[in-house]
Description:
Elements: H1 3-37, H2 42-46, H3 49-77, H4 82-87, H5 92-119, H6 128-149, H7 156-187, H8 194-223, H9 229-254, E1 268-269, E2 277-278, H10 279-289
Antiparallel strand pairs: 1-2
Amino acid sequence: MSLKPVLAANMAVVVLGSFFYALLLVSASTTLYLRFSRHEVPKLVVWNPVVLFTVFISVTAGAHWILTIVRFFHAFLGSVDTSRFYLDNSQATQTARNLLCVMAISIADAAIIQRLWLIWNRSRRVIIVPVVTCVGLLVNECGIIYSYANRVAVGPRWVKASWVLTLVTNLYCTGLMTWKIWRTKRTVEHPLGEGTFVPVLVILLESAAAWTIWGLLFAVMTSIGSPFHVIVTDLSPLVVGLVNTVIYLRVELQCIRPPGSDPSRPGIAMTSGASILPYFVTRVSTQISRGAAY
């Protein structure tokens, strides 16, 4: 393997990672500001899932980015062979980065599973599949990280399996949430208008599409043996963090009504579970819980 592409890929990770982390900080801080400013009891907001997921994934992605910068300076200013240093996955800093990457993706998977659980009226059966794939991802990644740390060769199929598992979780949850919202909108007797329906679906589908494209990009680069798959892998914590914080930010912005607007007009409702729940899903879920099947 030529060493120049490896160096170029890791230098690109530093530049792009710094840009993505800046975007993540802006979106996360804005989300938290809007959420705290809309509540009179800040102590209660701290334990809100939106706040917890935003903080956890921002801190995890931030720690991953810091280690990226530390490794960059160590590789170019330390007394090591720069190219060999980046190719050695058993380095302690690289092991820590791998763990943080798994943590960030797992937090994002947990967030989308929580949204699915809420939209389906807290049904446990509907989240069995994504929970299994999420646990499978953790087990598979722990095995990969352990192998890397002990200089044991890891076949590409195990790395691809991790991406397949997280993509299955994402697509499964997004598909069921979209179907639930679509069916509810068609079934509910009182039409609530496109102002509620379209923004919810757009937010869900765009976020799913972004992460799916990122996963497919990794699969293509790995299949052709490109060393630039490092860029996709190393930026994954920042990308998944950005995708999730942008979801919450767009929801918070939807909750802001311009002066003089009709307060009776339905919008996206942020429930106590702090998920993306349109008003009509909340109503129908309440009816289901009372035995009104549809």
